[in-house]
Design brief:
It contains 1 helix and 18 strands. The chain has 240 residues and is mainly beta. A hairpin with a 5-residue loop joins strand 14 and strand 15.
Length: 240
């Protein structure tokens, strides 16, 4: 469905409703041309699923064509009502067709780690180690890498929804969970070139056991105000 909007006092009011029947609002910065893709599990108009709620397609709500696709039934994650899209750690994943996505790249993802297994992968780029968020070293730690691993971030407990923010931008990269202190380090210079959700970018390995509610991909290093506005939108929406 095409996005129709009004802008009133700096707040975008789209004429679309979520699964609760509510009309949502979000920061206008998300329509600045730097949002590469935006996946929202509450907008059923963007999700193609069968009668058992297994998801074959999760479209970018802005219509870029950078849609998450999974044609093979056994590999399809399951849409779980208000709790997002469930990935089973066995063989579930979704992936876009490769597209131009180069640093700086910013990921905002609302997700829950259900179980923890070293190296299991929440996101990656089109190929492995190009935009990877993974479970690493000691539960419930998460790390990020575009060639160089970050220090582990232990601030997302199992079975708890949180907001992960990762900026891949060479020496200016960072990983942050909710509003805890970001870990700012050089995470490498690899470019994502696409987006993989639920496993390592290359090959059928490192599947995650997780639920995902919303993802925003940006081709810019958001400034402090814009980043906080995007975070606040997600935190308020999901009561995080």
């Amino acid at each position: 469905m095409a996005l129709v909007k009004d802008i009133v006092r700096g707040v975008v009011k789209p004429i679309v409703t979520d699964i609760f029947g509510d009309v949502e609002t979000f920061p206008p910065i998300l329509l600045d041309g730097n949002t590469v893709a935006w996946y929202d599990s509450q907008l059923l108009s963007t999700i193609t699923k069968d009668g058992s709620d297994f998801v074959s397609r999760w479209n970018d709500r802005l219509g870029s064509g950078h849609d998450l696709i999974q044609a093979l039934g056994t590999n399809q994650p399951k849409w779980i009502d208000v709790d997002g899209v469930l990935f089973d750690a066995v063989d579930n994943y979704m992936k876009t067709v490769a597209f131009t996505f180069v640093q700086p790249e910013m990921i905002y993802i609302v997700c829950k780690q259900i179980t923890w297994t070293v190296n299991n992968t929440i996101t990656d780029g089109d190929i492995g180690q190009t935009g990877r968020i993974l479970q690493r070293l000691v539960t419930p730690s998460l790390s990020a890498t575009a060639g160089t691993y970050s220090t582990d971030n232990n601030n997302l407990s199992l079975n708890t929804f949180g907001i992960i923010r990762v900026l891949f931008d060479g020496a200016s990269s960072k990983i942050q969970i909710n509003e805890t202190t970001p870990i700012a380090e050089n995470l490498g210079t690899a470019n994502m070139g696409g987006f993989t959700l639920g496993k390592y970018g290359t090959g059928d390995v490192a599947f995650a056991h997780m639920q995902v509610k919303e993802i925003i991909l940006r081709k810019v290093a958001d400034g402090a105000v814009d980043e906080q506005n995007i975070y606040n939108y997600l935190a308020n929406k999901y009561e995080i």
